[in-house]
Amino acid sequence: MAEQYSRHAKALPPLSHDQSVVVQVDPRQAKWTPAVVINTPADARPRSYVVQTANGVKLQRNRHHIKATPDAGNTPTVSDAEGPVV
Q: Percent of the chain scored above 90 by pLDDT?
């Protein structure tokens, strides 16, 4: 069974700090929201990133729920405001 899954699985490229991305706020819905990577993964959680949306909401999401966007110089501004990670 694992061999069948591995045949079609692909590794996603890592994201960098301050990179523009889109994220699924609710993974059960197909809506993607612009955000910025504010924390890259630690060794214990190699596919988990913390991102911040344009309205200041911080989310921790698996790499599967984050897509890189082409950098066109329109990176949303992110404040360093402290707040809970959803």
A: 51
Mean pLDDT over residues 4-10, rounded? 72
**CA 3-61-33 angle, 5° bins:** 115
**Spacing of C-alpha 29 from chain mean position:** 15
17-68: CATH architecture: Roll (2.30)
Give the Å distances, CA to CA, from 29 to 32, 44, 57, 81.
Answer: 9, 28, 18, 27
3-state secondary structure of 6: helix
Nearest to 35 by CA among 78, 86, 81, 85: 78
User: What is the C-alpha separation between 61 and 65, in angstroms, rounded?
Assistant: 6
